[in-house]
Structure formats: structure tokens, C-alpha cells
Amino acid sequence: MAPLPDPRWRHAVVTGGAGFVGSHLCAALLAQGTDVTCLDDFSTGLPDNTADLHDHPGFTLRRVDVSRPFTVDRPPDLVLHLASPASPADYLRLPLHTLDAGSLGTRNALELARRSGARFVLASTSEVYGDPHEHPQSEAYWGNVNPVGPRSVYDEAKRFGEALTTAHSAAHGTDTCIVRLFNTYGPGMRGHDGRAVPTFVRQALDGEPLTVTGDGRQSRSLCYVDDTVAGILAAAAHGMRGPVNIGNPDEITMLDLARRIIELTGSASQIRFIARPVDDPAVRCPDITLARGKLQWEPRTDMADGLRRTIAWFRARNNSPDRRSAP
Ligand code: NAD
């Protein structure tokens, strides 16, 4: 589904725009005629991720830690706040940075939107549902999160970010929207970021065993990045406040995902079972009734197709040499 062009968006600020999802979002905005200022501290992203955009006259890339006060040269009409470590390997390595990005970073991005009269979109996460007692998860479910477990630095930062966004709108009338993104995959991920798809693809291409945690029966629902970006832009264009789930309800167990990737890469790799991380959710699947009904959005990319494109990207880049987040 092509993102809805919105003539009101002459200039968007994307925090975390040099990350995996952010770089695709910057490209989609530029493609529809919106100038983009990308603010990123490169804590988990890379300037390389936006290399294709650097020559675009509408694109500006600035190294900024959004958890500290910042200004931009030109007021935006859209602020998309994605800045935050997102993979468990990253947020466990950067716990305080992650809490700051969800709290101070969200506050600073909200202030920018208020000062500029811009629409604000918070990239929240399915992790606000924790290890859910409801399945699939609808926006009405409040979640089951351990506030002092190792994952809490991410889950609670995002929950606080949602509360802050809601309060900012109530207190100042800021035009806000919360999108809850579910697991997203695609070209541009780092092979060592610890998330299942890039880990399995890298291992399969290297001929290493694919490390499946626990017994592999835990499920995730994986959304191809183009679909996630289209969902974020549809929510931004709609004017809704959310929260709204953006994800693919096509659920798969981690063991099946590993087998699928072995098959699609033609790898001779075996599967090796390793310990499951603390508080790892057993199931994860979005109820996207709201997004379907209000945004006329739903994911379009079939998993085999999305995985093929991701594998091709890893192959073309010689299997993602970035090893910054090696566990
Ligand atoms: P990513 O790590 O690839 O990108 C995050 C980007 O934010 C990086 O470029 C990083 O350098 C930047 N960043 C982090 N802290 C910052 C700070 N204080 N100031 C400026 N920049 C900062 O992660 P991603 O997968 O692209 O995720 C992007 C956003 O989407 C995150 O907010 C994440 O919580 C959310 N999200 C992603 C997924 C997913 O499956 N990818 C799922 C749910 C939610």
C-alpha cells in the first residue's frame, strides 16, 4: 500500500532516522515530497543507513542526542519520534540511555512539536503488552510487564512515553498520535542486533547453527518494513490519537521461522537450542481491527517475499559486516 501523500507535510523531523525503521521512513517521506531533518545520535544506527539520501536536496542529517534539549533550523509540520534503542541486545547494553530516550527524548520531541504546531507521532511498541494474558493483543489490553525485570528499561520507557504523550496532548493541546509497532524486519537490519530475523539470516548465510531460544514454540508476528512505514504514515495522515497497533497478524513460531530461513537461503545449517531470555514473551500477535477500519491499512507483504528480499540484501552486503552489537 502506498503511503498517503499529505500536502500539509512540507517538513518532517524524524528522530532516530538513521536506524532501521527510521531510514526507511525518511526515504518514504522524501519520495512523497516532504523534506526531512533526521536527528540521530548513532548509538544504534549508522550514518550509512541513510547514505542513499545524503545527496537529496530535501534531506538533512544531524548528530543530536534528543534526550538533551535541541533546536532545529526550520519548524517541522510533522515530528516522528523513533529515537530509542530497540533490540534487546542494544537496550540491555544501553539501559539508562534507553530510559532517557523514552522519557527525556520523548519530552523534547513533544516540545518541538508544540512549539512548531506540528503533528507528533510516537513510535511505541508491542512490548507495552509485556508477556500478554490476552491473545491476540488489542489496543484495549493494558499489558503484563515486569517493572523491574531486565526488559523493563525498554518496556517501561515506552509505557512512560505513551503516558507523557497523552498528558502533553491534554495539557497543551499538542496534536499527538501513538503507534504501537510490532516486530518489523527487512533490509537495513544489523546481523548482530540480536533480533530473530537478522540473527537467523546471518547464521544461515555463514553456515553456523541457527540459535533458537527455549523450545522455539514462542511466537512472533513479523511485519515487513515497507508495511510498517506505510502504517506509521497512514496513522500520521489520519489525525487519530491512537494508540493503534501496526503489525502483521501472520504469527509464526521461532522454530518455524528458523526452518523457513534455512529453506529460503538453501543453507546446510542445523538448529541449536539455547536458553530463553528472562521475561521473553511467549506469544505476540496484533489485533489490527482498528488500523484496518480507521486507516484502511493492513500489511501487504507475504512473509516468504519479505524474507527473500531481506536475505538478498544481506547477501548483497556480504552478510552485514556491522558487528557493533555482537552479544
Ligand atoms: P534502531 O536501533 O535501528 O533505530 C533506533 C535509532 O534511534 C538509531 O538510529 C539510534 O542511533 C537512534 N537513537 C537512539 N537513542 C537516541 C537518542 N537519544 N537521540 C537520537 N537518536 C537516538 O531501531 P528500529 O528497529 O529502527 O526502531 C525504531 C523505533 O521503532 C524505536 O523507537 C523502536 O522502539 C520502535 N519499534 C521498532 C520495532 C521493530 O521491530 N523494529 C518494533 C516496535 C517498536
Order of helices and strands: EHEEEHHEHEEHEEEHEEHEHH
Classify the beta-strand content into a percent band: 15-25%
Number of strands: 13
Distinct small molecules bound, one entry per kind: nicotinamide-adenine-dinucleotide
What form results from the Cα inertia axes?
globular
Please outline the major beta sheet: 7 strands, parallel
Instruction: Order the strands across the largest sheet as they lie in space.
Output: 3-2-1-4-5-6-11
Tell me the helix content. Answer: 25-40%
Instruction: Give the CA-CA distance, first to last residue.
Output: 36 Å
Strand-pairing-aware structural class:
alpha/beta
Average pLDDT figure: 93
Report Rg: 19 Å
Tally of helical segments: 9
> Low-confidence parts lasting 5 or more residues at pLDDT below 50?
323-327
Short description:
Helices cover about 35% and strands about 15% of the residues.
Q: Describe it for me?
A:
- With 327 residues, the protein is α/β, with parallel strands linked by helices.
- The protein is built from nine helices and 13 strands.
- It has helices at 20-31, 88-93, 95-116, 152-172, 196-206, 225-238, 254-265, 289-295, 303-316; strands spanning 11-15, 35-40, 59-63, 78-81, 119-125, 175-181, 184-185, 210-213, 219-221, 223-224, 244-246, 251-253, 271-274.
- The protein has a seven-stranded parallel sheet, sandwiched between helices. A two-stranded parallel ribbon has the order 7-10. Strands 8-13 form a two-stranded parallel sheet.
- Helix 3 runs parallel beside helix 4 (152-172), helix 5 packs parallel to helix 7 (254-265) and helix 5 (196-206) packs across helix 9 (303-316).
- The longest helix is centred in the first third of the chain and has 22 residues, at 95-116.
- The relative contact order is 0.15.
- The chain binds nicotinamide-adenine-dinucleotide.
- Nicotinamide-adenine-dinucleotide binds at residues 15-16, 18-22, 39-45, 64-67, 82-86, 90, 101, 105, 123, 125, 181, 183-184.
- Nicotinamide-adenine-dinucleotide (NAD) binds next to helix 1, strand 2, helix 3 and strand 5.
